Amino acid sequence: MSAIPRLTVDELAARAGVSVRTLRFYSGKGLLPPPELGPRRVGLYGAEHLDRLELIEELQRLGLTLAAIERYLDQLPPDISSLDLAIHRALIAVWAPETAEQATVEQLSRRTGRELSPADLEQLVAMGALQRTDQETVFTLDPGLLPLGARVLDLPIPLETIVTARAVVRLHSRAAARELNRLFRETVWKPFRESAPAEAEVERMRELTTRIEPLLTQALVTAFHRSLAEQLAENG
């Protein structure tokens, strides 16, 4: 993967779509790590700062206050990588309210920090990071997947492989979801329905599902990550 070049505070603000004042405010709150000092003691920022800004944006979309975001970021490992931050953000995006966010090719290029070619756009669509609209130069984007998709563009992976990999993941994730749904329906929700008063059942079931769903998603992602690492180690 090509590294994001070091950026000045103005360049970082432009890439993240926020004001320099906002960046300085976040830095003062400790939400961003300090920049490296370049020539003439100019602060220089990199991928880790951009990914943290994107994570902060996703947490704000969930309605968290800055104090809650600060506590959340404090729990992350101090040596967390830029890619791990991007994956973390993609997971959080699952729980964010869905919004039909659209952008032109020019806006997407600014957002990803690269001039997107037709082939790049095709790959991002194949990955699910973008969806086509009835306008050729306008796409609906997935804010959580787009940063990850932009990183994959630099990898030597054929488009056919991306399409097939996405199909494989969707197929097996649906199978896992069906099996988990059956398991919890029979062992958790059915006994709960039999024991809970009828008037409280619907709300309690909704609350239970809301609490279980993120835990299952994190468990599935962790299990997949470990299984993939094992397979790569065997092939290595």
Q: Low-confidence parts, pLDDT < 50 over ≥5 residues?
A: none
Could you tell me the CATH topology label of the largest domain: Multidrug-efflux Transporter Regulator, Chain: A, Domain 2
Strand content: 5-15%
Strand order of the largest sheet: 3-5-4
TL;DR?
With 236 residues, the protein is mainly alpha-helical.
Key features?
236 residues, mainly alpha, Multidrug-efflux Transporter Regulator, Chain: A, Domain 2, 3 domains, two-stranded antiparallel ribbon, 10 helices, 5 strands
Layout of SSEs?
Elements: H1 9-16, H2 20-29, E1 36-37, E2 43-44, H3 47-61, H4 66-74, H5 82-93, E3 102-104, H6 105-112, H7 118-127, E4 130-132, E5 138-141, H8 146-152, H9 159-195, H10 198-235
Antiparallel strand pairs: 1-2, 3-5, 4-5
Helix pairs in contact: 3-5, 7-9
Give a verbal description of the structure:
There is one protein chain. With 236 residues, the chain is mostly helical. It folds into 3 domains: 9-93, Multidrug-efflux Transporter Regulator, Chain: A, Domain 2, CATH 1.10.1660.10; 102-152; 159-235, no CATH class. It has helices spanning 9-16, 20-29, 47-61, 66-74, 82-93, 105-112, 118-127, 146-152, 159-195, 198-235, and strands at residues 36-37, 43-44, 102-104, 130-132, 138-141. Helix 3 runs parallel beside helix 5 (82-93) and helix 7 (118-127) runs parallel beside helix 9.
